[in-house]
Specification:
heterotrimer; A mainly alpha (144); B mainly alpha (278); C mainly alpha (279); A: 144 residues; mainly alpha; two-stranded parallel sheet; B: 278 residues; 14 helices
Chain lengths: 144, 278, 279
């Protein structure tokens, strides 16, 4: 019995020793319930084209997309993808990337294409994957 | 006797705080924390102890605590101190290499490995395996396959040869080929990269909008004609660009899967390290 | 005779030695407590562990483990805190420290929002006759657990059982009153697009939704009236239905958001302004 207790103690003490492998400070947890982050982060260092597109996108959101439901199966959504694409490259490449995305969106069998799943349940398909820069391709889920 | 008692009393008052912090007690407490895997606190105690005393085991544990919590530079520095004239010299040398290895500074590891001197025979096979692992994990400056797989058991060699060949000549798809294929037939580049349905949709969309453009022009609906011409260009351009991007994604996925598999291979076997409890 | 005296002296020194060790440990405890009081919890744990290690007679084990648990709790490391409170429970010599540890475990579970576990522990203590006098306190924490789980109705009911918890009961009722009905919002948006959004306080969005549905509906109907059935189907399916579905989605989302806002306002109040005992 004593041995079992001892083993239990050792197991327990090893399980939570990792917390202390870095010095920590006092911390208050928020009582509040978690809110879903829905905001699309706008790039502060956006180029001129990017800024223009961002305002265009805001207008699109305000006038149309805020009211027609959550239709896009991708994350980021097609409109955000376009803005990201232009910001990452230029207007021409961005438009081509958007055309490609639009085509892929029409594919009803896209689930077979191994898009990683975003935690919102959508297919994770960031613009960075299509900039023709191998370094920017991301497969793992991101927390946003 | 009264004298003795008062002397002891005096001593206890003056030394009350110091006693638990004597080097000996520091060491005892440090060893206790080390055994509990409370490494950061153990480091603090060993550090104080080592200021006034020298002890190979304490130094080793001090260094190993750094290694365990991922502070590899400090670990390497302290293992190095044990290289000459210490009873733990052999282990310290192996653990020094482990610190380099886990810091992921594979270049430093390889340079140190190539210029190693007086490395203990006992751990030389382990070190050779670690060295091979650095090449498998970094995939740069690959030496010949034979050298890399030599330290491993025969049963593992087939797998390692496969990894090696995949690293040397990965079956990549060419972006330019993919783009050119889509120039010839919209969406063909996507079929080439394995995205069959995406390719068919791109083909269909381009063809349909092209047909509608021609059809509208034939019926003198010029506005609609130009609209669908624009749409055709949109889909056509998108399919060419998308095919090149798709080839890259294919290659990146290939790379990613191979990397994950190799990493898992070594991780599952704990990098072939012997179990040393010190 | 001389021999006997010598033994006495040795015995005296020996006694002093052991006393001396214990007093040193207690001095060390005071030092750890000082660190604890100045909110240096990580360092305090180190020193408490030193106390535990050198306290060979285990006289301080309960007290020190309790303190270590409190340190972890203050650092929001609830898993570790609960482990140490559980150690206190295991080594406790009397019921008062036992119940204190148990209640602390409940409070940690409330804070890390593992409500089920908190409620389960509350019931366990309630069934234990030794802690009959603690019923009110258990109910108090049960109410908190419900509030943290966004179940204000249950919390209100629990707080209503004890007159002392009147303030919290009122707070719960305020939350319940301020919340909107998600079902109602959805249903009225089925009937009149935009109504659910306006009900949840998003007036502009509601009006825009209404306008889109009106316009799309008009064009759809118009197409059918003018015998352009194909156009009617296309506009109906691609435009009207899309905005109609979006309208219902929004009605539900906004109602949920509004309720979350109400809950969080109350929880924020509890965290920052409420003066009573908190988890």
């Amino acid at each position: 019995m004593r041995k079992i207790l001892y083993i239990l103690f050792v197991v327990v003490s090893t399980a939570y020793s990792q917390t202390d492998w870095q010095k920590w400070e006092a911390k208050q947890v928020s009582y509040e319930l978690p809110t879903k982050s829905v905001a699309y982060a706008q790039n502060e260092n956006a180029s001129l084209a990017g800024t223009f597109l961002n305002s265009l996108k805001s207008a699109y959101s305000f006038l149309i997309s805020d009211y027609d439901g959550d239709n896009c199966p991708f994350s980021p959504s097609c409109a955000n993808f376009f803005v990201e694409a232009v910001e990452e490259t230029n207007l021409l490449s961005g438009t081509l990337m958007f055309a490609d995305r639009f085509t892929r969106d029409m594919n009803v069998f896209k689930g077979v294409n191994h898009y990683p799943l975003h935690k919102s349940g959508k297919y994770f398909d960031p613009a960075g994957n299509y900039t023709l820069n191998l370094q920017k391709i991301k497969f793992e889920m991101v927390n946003n | 006797m009264i004298l003795l008692i008062s002397a002891a009393e005096l001593y206890s008052q003056s030394g009350a705080q110091d006693d638990l912090f004597s080097p000996n007690n520091r060491l005892k407490f440090a060893n206790h924390l080390y055994a509990e895997k409370d490494y950061l606190r153990a480091i603090g105690e060993y550090k104080e102890f080592l200021k006034s005393a020298d002890n190979d085991t304490a130094r080793f544990r001090f260094a190993n605590s750094f290694l365990r919590i991922g502070r590899f530079d400090e670990a390497a520095q302290n293992f190095k101190i044990l290289f000459i004239g210490s009873k733990l010299e052999e282990e310290a040398k192996l653990f020094y290499y482990q610190s380099l290895f886990f810091s992921k500074d594979f270049n430093a590891f390889q340079t140190n490995y190539d210029s190693r001197f007086n490395f203990p025979q006992k751990y030389s096979l382990t070190l050779d395996r670690l060295n091979s692992a650095t090449y498998f994990l970094s995939k740069t400056n690959l030496p010949s396959g034979n050298v890399l797989i030599k330290p491993f058991d025969d049963s593992l060699q087939t797998k390692l040869i496969y990894y090696y060949l995949m690293m040397k000549n990965p079956p990549k798809k060419n972006s330019v080929t993919a783009a050119l294929l889509s120039v010839a037939i919209p969406g063909a580049g996507k079929v080439y990269t394995g995205e069959l349905t995406d390719g068919l949709i791109a083909f269909g969309a381009t063809l349909l909008s092209g047909f509608l453009a021609v059809n509208n022009f034939q019926h003198d609906h010029n506005f609609r004609g130009w609209l669908f011409t624009g749409l055709t260009a949109f889909f056509y351009g998108g399919s060419i660009y998308g095919s090149a991007a798709s080839a890259q994604i294919y290659n990146a996925r290939l790379q990613f899967n191979l990397d994950s598999e190799i990493k898992l291979f070594f991780e599952e076997r704990n990098y072939f390290l012997p179990k040393i409890d010190l | 005779m001389f021999r006997i005296r010598k033994y006495f002296v040795l015995l005296g020194i020996f006694c002093l030695q052991s006393n001396y060790a214990q007093s040193t440990v207690e001095t060390q405890l005071a030092w750890a407590d000082k660190l604890f009081a100045s909110n240096q919890y990580f360092d305090a744990i180190t020193e408490y562990k030193r106390v535990l290690f050198f306290d060979e007679q285990n006289k301080l084990i309960t007290r020190v483990n309790f303190r270590i648990a409190e340190c972890y709790k203050a650092g929001a490391h609830f898993y570790e805190a609960i482990k140490y409170f559980a150690l206190v429970e295991k080594n406790s010599l009397n019921d008062s420290i036992l119940i204190e540890a148990k209640l602390e475990i409940i409070r940690c579970n409330i804070l890390r929002k593992t409500t089920e576990r908190a409620l389960q522990l509350c019931s366990e203590i309630e069934r234990d006759e030794r802690f009959y006098s603690k019923r009110d306190e258990i109910n108090y924490w049960r109410g908190w657990a419900f509030m943290f789980a966004d179940d204000w109705e249950s919390a209100s009911k629990i707080f209503a059982e004890t007159p002392a918890n009147k303030e919290l009961k009122l707070l719960c009722n305020q939350v319940i009153d301020a919340k909107v009905s998600v079902t109602f919002a959805t249903v009225i948006s089925y009937i009149l697009p935009g109504a659910g959004q306006i009900y949840s306080g998003k007036i502009l969005s509601g009006l825009m939704s209404f306008a889109w549905n009106l316009a799309a509906g008009y064009f759809t109907v118009n197409a059918f009236v003018a015998n352009r059935a194909f156009d009617g189907i296309v506009i109906g399916e691609l435009v009207w239905l899309r905005f109609y579905r979006g309208n219902i989605e929004n009605a539900k989302t906004f109602a949920l958001e509004k309720n979350l806002e109400v809950s969080n306002k109350a929880l924020k109040f509890l965290q920052n302004e409420y003066r009573g005992l908190k988890p």
